[in-house]
């Protein structure tokens, strides 16, 4: 899926293009946000990897948009608890970096089994980040963009309406005030999801 420039105006609900145009913009911006989230986490965890947007299928210019940076920064704040949770990190290691799409979808669906919030969206991104990190360190480069496409397909099929109601990705900036609470919820959702996957694989 080709990305549009990061600074291209995002459609508004009720605009001339309708919901399909808005949804396309949300997906396109979501790809940029996801790559930013993955890069910031990987570069913090292992700076020697030198991950760039191009490695993840993007363009260097997409990091220049300050709004994208603010969105990614907010998602990173929510994810702090995920990185500190030792049990979660152990469970993540049971999901192989070269897992099949059905395994990814099973875990992703269980994350959102009882609702959608920004914490759970971050948990989805965190799953992608961990799988991409494993792919990079295990030389499974061919599946990196495949994982990103799985995330975007899942968003389009399962949570696009909710994102539209939030006003798109910028909603995480304006609507999340208690990000620590959401980070706890994200961690619980992710642990539950991985336990579910381990019991049902």
Automatic annotation (TrEMBL):
Single biological process term from Gene Ontology: regulation of apoptotic process
Region (Disordered): 1-22
InterPro entries: Bcl-2-like_sf (IPR036834), Bcl-2_BH1-3 (IPR046371), Bcl-2_fam (IPR026298), Bcl2-like (IPR002475)
Residues of the Bcl-2 Bcl-2 homology region 1-3 domain: 75-169
Pfam families, per database record: Bcl-2
GO molecular function annotation: BH domain binding; channel activity
TM regions (residue ranges): 179-197
Sorted UniProt keywords: Apoptosis, Membrane, Transmembrane, Transmembrane helix
A cellular component annotation (GO) from this entry: mitochondrial outer membrane
Family, per entry: Belongs to the Bcl-2 family.
Stated name of the protein: Bcl-2 Bcl-2 homology region 1-3 domain-containing protein
């Amino acid at each position: 899926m080709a990305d549009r420039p990061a600074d291209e105006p995002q459609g508004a609900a009720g605009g001339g293009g309708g919901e399909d145009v808005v949804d396309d913009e949300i997906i396109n911006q979501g790809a940029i946000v996801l790559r930013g989230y993955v890069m910031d986490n990987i570069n913090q965890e292992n700076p020697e990897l030198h991950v760039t947007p191009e490695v993840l299928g993007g363009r260097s210019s997409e990091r220049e948009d300050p709004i994208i940076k603010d969105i990614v920064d907010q998602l990173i704040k929510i994810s702090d608890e995920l990185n500190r949770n030792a049990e979660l990190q152990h469970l993540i290691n049971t999901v192989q970096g070269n897992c099949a799409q059905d395994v990814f979808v099973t875990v992703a669906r269980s994350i959102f089994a009882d609702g959608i919030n920004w914490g759970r969206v971050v948990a989805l991104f965190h799953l992608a980040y961990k799988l991409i990190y494993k792919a990079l360190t295990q030389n499974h480069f061919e599946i990196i963009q495949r994982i990103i496409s799985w995330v975007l397909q899942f968003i389009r099929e399962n949570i696009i309406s909710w994102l539209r109601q939030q006003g798109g990705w910028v909603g995480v900036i304006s609507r999340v005030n208690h990000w620590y609470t959401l980070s706890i919820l994200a961690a619980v959702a992710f642990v539950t999801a991985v336990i579910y996957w381990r019991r049902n694989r």
